[in-house]
Amino acid sequence: MAENTHCVIMRIFTASIIFMKTALITHISSETGIAAGQVERTLSLLNEGATIPFIARYRKEVTGNLDELQIAQIKSGQEKFEKLEQRKETILHAIEEQDKLTDELKQAIQNTFDPVELEDLYLPFKQKRKTKAAVARENGLEQLARIIMAQRERNIERQAEAFVKGKITSVEDALQGARDIIAEWINENKKARMMIRQLFERQAVITAKVVKGKEEEAQKYTDYFSYEEKLNRIKSHRLLAIRRSEREGFLRVSIRPPEEYALERLKRYFIRNDTSGNVTLAVKDSYKRLLAPSIETEFAASSKERADEEAIKVFAENLKQLLLTAPLGEKRILAIDPGFRTGCKVVCLDAQGKLLHNDTIYPHPPQSQDAQAMKKINTLVQQYKIEAIAIGNGTAGRETETLIRRIRFHDDVQVFIVNEAGASVYSASPEAREEFPDYDVTVRGAVSIGRRLMDPLAELVKIDPKSIGVGQYQHDVDQKKLKEALDRVVESCVNLVGVDVNTASKHLLKYVSGLGSQLAQNIIDYGMSTGPSVRAKS
Question: What's the pLDDT tens digit per position in 464-474?
Answer without folding.
Answer: 777 776 667 77
